[in-house]
Fold this sequence. Notes:
Blueprint: E1 2-3, E2 14-15, H1 21-40, H2 48-57, H3 70-105, H4 117-130, H5 142-162, H6 169-193
Antiparallel strand pairs: 1-2
Helix pairs in contact: 1-3, 4-5, 4-6, 5-6
Amino acid sequence: MTDTSSAGTGAEPLRVARLRPGALVAALVAVVGAMVIGMALGPVDISPKLIVYELLDDLPFIELDSGLSDQRVAIIEQIRLPRVVLGFLVGATLSVSGAAYQGAFRNPLADPYLLGIAAGAGLGATVAITQDWGDGAGFTDPVPLAAFAGALLAIVLSYTAGHVGGRSTASLILSGVAVASFLTAAQTYVLQANSDA
Length: 197
């Protein structure tokens, strides 16, 4: 199946992959299995089978007795389950952003270095660390916030510079490479200027 909506733009048409139900089910089983194994790992040994029983027991209309003590149930539900769910959400977010990058550039090798986003985040984090902003605790930790701001700055610079002469993907990529080089040089300067930090 081919999408011909890019005809006349000079870009080659995109191929739309068909969703395979078997592959989707296999991926879902693998993810659930990895999550259960992730909840089983830790200093306190808990069987994956008992973890599944305990999680199913929390669902409405299902009564299963895992036989786990209250302490082990608390370990599963208050420590390990949130950690595994957060890891799943972070991984899912990264995969969606990677797919968006690859779709935007029609290139399976596209990555955050392409538009200078990694360099911008590195510069923001370097400035926050060398200037000793904040105590580095909680949601208001300035290092990730500065890294995020640096990444946004890199996107704005790359997008603005890439659309000056036209709206081609090649000009956007070239502006991204230039912005990445500039921001990497700025990061090196900040590190050299604050070498005692």
